[in-house]
Amino acid sequence: MKEFALIFRNSVNSDTKPSPEQMKKVMTDWMNWMGSIAAQNKLADKGNRLSMSEAKTVRSDNTITDGPFTEIKEFINGYIIVKADTIDDAIEIAKECPILKIGGNVEVRAIVTPDDNN
After folding, report:
1. What is the pLDDT of residues 44-89, one digit of tens each?
2. Which of 46, 68, 43, 44 has the alpha carbon at shortest distance from 55?
3. Which of 33, 49, 104, 114 has its CA 20 to 30 A from that of 11?
4. Residue 18 — left, alpha, or beta (φ > 0 → left; ψ -120 to 50 → alpha)?
5. For the residues 88-114, what does the mean pLDDT come to?
6. Contact (CB, 8 A) for 30 and 77
7. What is the CATH topology of the domain spanning 2-110?
8. Is 82 exposed, middle or buried (0-12, 13-18, 19+ CB in 10 A)?
9. Taking the model in full, what pTM does it have?
């Protein structure tokens, strides 16, 4: 099996403030989704959430700017690493991600190892 990174992206929308009940539902959906991946022995790394407030970008000219982008419309919220035979199998896992229900998206990328000749 190969490993694939599922990178979770969401849009910045200050108008959307979920209620505590909605947040609880989202967290339950995430835990259930992650649990189902782990139960299939396809979770290689549970990953982490990534900070929005503590982020810098270092550019090739050694300029350092706040955040990942100067004009952010979408941010990377976190990632996990899954095991799948093909990218199509990893996409099927990504299709069940709860972030899709709240307007986000999932980028699926193969992890490149030193043994890869692609």
Report:
1. 999 988 877 787 777 778 888 776 655 556 678 889 999 999 999 9
2. 68
3. 33
4. beta
5. 90
6. no
7. Alpha-Beta Plaits (3.30.70)
8. buried
9. 0.80
